[in-house]
Write a structure and sequence with these properties.
The complex is a heterodimer of chains A (about 280) and B (about 450).
Chain A lengths: L2 E10 L2 E7 L1 H4 L7 E5 L7 E9 L4 E7 L3 H7 L6 E2 L1 E6 L10 E7 L2 H14 L3 E8 L8 H5 L5 E6 L6 E2 L3 H9 L5 E5 L2 H11 L6 E4 L15 E4 L2 E4 H4 L2 E3 L5 H8 L3 H19 L1
Parallel strand pairs in A: 8-9, 8-12, 9-10, 10-11, 12-13
Antiparallel strand pairs in A: 1-2, 1-6, 2-5, 3-4, 3-7, 4-5, 13-16, 14-15
Chain B lengths: L5 H4 L12 H9 L9 H4 L6 H10 L2 H9 L5 H7 L6 H4 L11 H14 L17 E5 L3 H12 L3 E5 L8 H4 L8 H13 L3 E3 L10 H5 L6 E4 L5 E2 L12 E3 H10 L17 E5 L3 H12 L4 E5 L11 H9 L3 E3 L2 E9 L2 E15 L5 E5 L5 E4 L2 E4 L3 E2 L2 H4 L26 E3 L2 H4 L4 H21 L1
Parallel strand pairs in B: 1-2, 1-4, 2-3, 4-16, 6-14, 7-8, 7-14, 8-9
Antiparallel strand pairs in B: 5-15, 10-11, 11-12, 11-13
Classes of the chains: A alpha/beta (about 280), B alpha/beta (about 450).
The complex binds flavin-adenine dinucleotide (2 copies) and FE2/S2 (inorganic) cluster.
One flavin-adenine dinucleotide binds next to strand 4, strand 5, helix 2, helix 3 and helix 9 of chain A.
Amino acid sequence: MPFEVLQKRQLSEAVFEMTVAAPAVAAKVRPGQFLMLRVDEHGERIPLTFSDWDAEQGWVRFIFMVVGKTTHALSHREAGETIADLVGPLGKPTRVEGLGRCVVVGGGVGAAVAYPVARAMAEAGNEVTVILGARTADLLVLADEFEKLPISELIVATDDGSEGRKGLVTEPLKELCDAGVVDHAMAIGPAIMMKFCAATTRPYGVPTVVSLNPIMVDGTGMCGACRVSVGGETKFGCVDGPDFDGHLVDFEELMSRQRIYADEEREADAAYRQECSCRTK
Amino acid sequence: MPERDALERAEDFVEVALGYPEELARAEAERCLQCANPTCIAGCPVNIDIKSFIGRILEGDYEGGTRVIKERNPLPAVCGRVCPQEEQCEKACILARKGEPVAIGRLERFLGDRELARPPAERERPETAPPSGRRVAVIGSGPAGLACAGELARLGHAVTVFESLHAPGGVLTYGIPEFRLPKSIVRAEIDALADMGVEVVTDTVIGATYTLGELLEDQGLDAAFIGAGAGLPVFLGIPGENLNGVYSANEFLTRVNLMKAYEFPTYDTPVWRGRKVAVVGGGNVAMDAARTAKRLGAEEVFLVYRRTEEEMPARREEVHHAREEGVEFKMLCSPVEVLGRDGWVTGLTATRMELGEPDASGRRAPVCVVGSEFTIDCDTVIVALGTRANPVLTSTADGLELTSRGYIVADENGATSVPGVYAGGDIVTGSATVIKAMGAGKRAAAAIHARLGAS
Ligand SMILES: Cc1cc2nc3c(=O)[nH]c(=O)nc-3n(C[C@H](O)[C@H](O)[C@H](O)COP(=O)(O)OP(=O)(O)OC[C@H]3O[C@@H](n4cnc5c(N)ncnc54)[C@H](O)[C@@H]3O)c2cc1C
Ligand SMILES: Cc1cc2nc3c(=O)[nH]c(=O)nc-3n(C[C@H](O)[C@H](O)[C@H](O)COP(=O)(O)OP(=O)(O)OC[C@H]3O[C@@H](n4cnc5c(N)ncnc54)[C@H](O)[C@@H]3O)c2cc1C
Ligand code: FES
């Protein structure tokens, strides 16, 4: 079933925001949930998190980083064109009520997922601090949008110091924990970042939720591709998550499973780049 | 029935069984005794008038034969291929007592295929009753949902089928491989239902996109049928099961069939192509996984099953095909651990079993032989131990009574604890067969029709 692209916006060199007409889905989304899409009839099903949605106007929005074939092809879809499939909302919504003083950490494109979560936490009456991290200023996304949220503080950290503080997101996180002003932490980004965020909060006993991104196929609990180990138990990321207790997640296993198809992904992306350059010639 | 050579076919995904040419079909039909009181019909879960369709083949009236089948079964080309006829109609055939029963399934396929060879506009289109003005939602586009939808459409009701995946067909599309059931055939038989006015809406998860309550109340549908299947994979629960290279049969087959990973990189979805593959299980799903692994280029494929070949629930024909294609059977073995290095599978440790006393099901229960552990050298493990009920829909449906294992409780007509909501197929019975699911869908359609007529 084709879905119309209403708008595409480039946020940084490799990061795009896309708005798609999907009225039934838009009516249902809650923060932290995701969709599965297929760009065309030959495409892979990939999960992306809703960054925004409007039930009345019937659209959903997501932000994605170009990392391989599918995200690359998606970035070439223009307003007025369609994508083959979009299904959702999937996964359990993020808990946002009654958390107290929250810190939301968004790393890289994880900022896109952090945005609706931070907004919902603030709207639910929590006191929210956001820490945004990226390797360099160019890769920082949505900083302006976060500024406009009713949050108490926005801390930006880049690895090279090209914007905000120089260093990793775990440093301000640790300072806040030291100051004893964190009741609840949420970390969203690359697995390695979430792992270190969980390690940072553990000594302080601060409950820390992470939003996991295992490889998925159906996104509805049918295949088990997305299984993750949490506290020694196997869970399905798509239906039991994507949020889990960061202090119980086996991140090594997650990172290993994310690399299963590394060779095939390189092959597919290379072939696609070749095809694109042929087409433009 | 003619088949492709085992070694040649084990290299590709083209269909194995070639189907009857016309002369062979006629010759086989000649064997039918055209009994005064045919016993075969009662053996068919949807009671196709078998005697009569074989009679039409004898007369050369193939369209007429198709019409007879389609009165009862909208998917003849599918069922002619995948039904376990040896346990149903053919078992009940009078000739089976003395020897070979009439090959009813193959004749059904012959008619189904002939029909699909005609241009779409000329194909048989069952007569539909005038519009009733009633609307029914069907959840799930597997055999149960499709049969229910087809029957309701025939009775004049407006039917919308909601499917969570991007393609309809259920297990016919995502589970059963191309070499046993070509997807073009599934597609064509579903298109024929669409021609009858059945609307299929893909990309819609009931329980997420809409709840059951919303369909009935907000959208004002008059009744609903749930044919959501039993899609939740079961794992072994042994150490090492999350290593790279361990698949549920569902994931492995979905990647290959639904996502067409065997055509990677033409299709984007990858699948890990193991060189030595251990498939755990003894049902049709295990056979399909093993034969698929072989076609993806595995040098060795082992089938690991804890009882003996005799107890295997797979169809004999499929066991035979798997063996012909070089799948190696390791019977009386039960896995205890998946071994790995650097995150990837390197082997499967299993223990030997022996058969003990009969259990509740009457099958002799396998018991473990102490100290008999050994390791199978492999880089892929595919777990085909069956499936359970997926809670995505049922957990959001208020008042829907479930069994302790999460299946929907329904009576013989499919009626559930919620008035106006019916269910059938694997979501009620647990994993069963295509034709049983279709039978349940049709019975529910009749019950829904009666309910709508009465209200
Ligand atoms: C619940 C969830 C929410 C996500 N939300 C976002 C988001 O909002 N924005 C965003 O940019 N990314 C998000 N991702 C990651 C995104 O799905 C992947 O970047 C995308 O699938 C890459 O596909 P590709 O073909 O472009 O790259 P590939 O070259 O195929 O893969 C690059 C990497 O992406 C991961 N990946 C590949 N295929 C899949 C798949 N089918 N499912 C999951 N991961 C895969 C792999 O770990 C791989 O190493 C999310 C992932 C999950 C599980
Ligand atoms: C690999 C394999 C091989 C098999 N081989 C044979 C064979 O040779 N012969 C035979 O007779 N039987 C075979 N079977 C069994 C047979 O396929 C099933 O018994 C039959 O398909 C059950 O039909 P169903 O309609 O109940 O469910 P399914 O075929 O499972 O269809 C259910 C559909 O509902 C959809 N769905 C689920 N939840 C939702 C939701 N919440 N919202 C919307 N849609 C939803 C699913 O995506 C799916 O498309 C096989 C099964 C497998 C897995
Ligand atoms: S993606 Fe298939 S079960 Fe989660």
